[in-house]
Write a structure and sequence with these properties.
The protein is α/β, with parallel strands linked by helices and about 350 residues long. The protein has 14 helices and 15 strands. A hairpin with a 6-residue loop joins strand 11 and strand 12 (about 290-295). Residues about 1-5 have low confidence and may be disordered. The chain binds pyridoxal-5'-phosphate. The site of pyridoxal-5'-phosphate has 12 residues, from helix 3.
């Protein structure tokens, strides 16, 4: 994607995603120093260390390093379902709206369950889990926290516990899309393992707020993870001297989790600033690092908003027809938030 140089002299404030974060100096140092091997032959020691570390942090028996969180989610589905079975998940979940790879390639059916703030309605979930008759067997239920499309909302732990219990009673496994699990843990003030315990398998993205360049880890029980490891090879996800990347991931999970609180504070600062421009604009009140800005009251379309904000030095992403998504991350400071609010104000006053 080409970026126009903004009129102002400062580089644009990039709130498109926390995936734009670059490696820290400590990551580069660990990448250079990491012991490496061939992960497709006899194993890469740094990859093994990352897998074991993340599994321990999430209270799971085993971990698997994969190139992306999309692949981690796909492997979790493939390892815990059979053809012609059903995966049940909240209807705006990333796995449902943006991935669906397992459905495309295997004939699995994904059933979306409506909810609020990323949490499935439990009565509707109960209905979806009823098997028999003309219904497909549900073999997997998936949750997501923090929830991307729900503006970074964090699932309450009692909700997760209820879903886990209902799924178990119906004979289904539970997967947690924890791409931003560490953001959820920081927001709740608990350890990541306290969230992960409400799922059988958990994916964690290393390349979002945790700032590693690439990669994700899937964690779960030994036998499911052994299946996932075989499937990873089939999908082409087994890499060779991948310890170089795992080293950055280790630094991410060991050193970058706590600082996510800063991103959450700045997201709130952005939300407060934009909400001072009400009623034309209204911003969601974030629990984590994602703010959705509703533009329907401005009479300007989303594409127009994105372009005008870019000209004013702010990069955001369109989210649906009338919303914009802003994500805070390590490269965004207080001055950037103030500049972002100023950009919204400038465009609003010009429009
Ligand atoms: C980003 C994201 C993913 C996919 O992660 P990649 O590493 O980009 O494949 C999956 N789930 C959620 C909730 C995400 O935000």
């Amino acid at each position: 994607m080409t970026q126009r140089t903004p009129a102002a002299s400062r580089p644009p404030v990039d709130l498109r995603s926390d995936t734009v974060t670059r490696p820290t100096e400590a990551m580069y140092e660990r990448m250079r120093a990491a012991p490496i091997g061939d992960d497709g032959l006899d194993g890469d020691p740094t990859v093994r260390e990352l897998e074991a570390h993340v599994a321990a942090r999430l209270d799971k028996e085993a971990g698997l390093f994969v190139p992306s969180c999309t692949m981690a989610n796909l492997l979790a589905v493939l390892a815990q379902t059979q053809r012609n079975e059903q995966v049940v998940l909240e209807s705006s979940a990333h796995m449902y709206t943006s991935e669906r790879g397992a459905a495309t390639f295997t004939g699995l059916f994904y059933l979306g369950v409506a909810g609020a703030d990323g949490a499935m309605d439990l009565a509707r979930l109960e209905d979806a889990l009823q098997g028999g008759g003309h219904r497909l067997k549900t073999s997997l239920v998936a949750m997501e926290t923090s929830h991307n499309n729900a503006g970074g909302a964090v699932l309450p732990l009692d909700h997760m516990q209820a879903v886990h219990g209902m799924a178990r009673a119906a004979g289904a496994a539970v997967h947690l899309d924890g791409a931003r699990l560490f953001n959820a843990a920081v927001a709740l003030g608990v350890a990541p393992g306290d969230i992960a315990r409400h799922a059988d398998t958990v994916s964690l993205c290393l390349s979002k707020g945790l700032s590693a360049p690439v990669g994700a880890v899937l964690a779960g029980g030994k036998s499911v993870m052994a299946s996932a490891r075989v499937l990873r090879r089939m999908l082409g996800g087994t890499q060779r001297q991948s310890g170089i990347m795992a080293a950055a991931g280790l630094e991410g999970v060991q050193a970058m989790g706590d600082r996510l609180a800063e991103d959450h504070v700045r997201a709130r600062r952005l939300s407060d600033g934009v909400n001072r421009l009400a009623p034309a604009l209204s911003a969601s009140v974030p629990q984590t690092n994602i703010v959705q800005v509703e533009t329907a009251g401005t009479g300007m379309g989303n594409a127009q908003w994105v372009a005008a904000l870019q000209a004013a030095g702010l990069l955001v992403r369109p989210w649906g027809r009338t919303r914009l998504r802003c994500v805070t991350h390590r490269h965004i400071g207080d001055a950037d938030i103030d500049a972002a609010v100023h950009a919204f104000e400038t465009v609003l006053n010009a429009g």
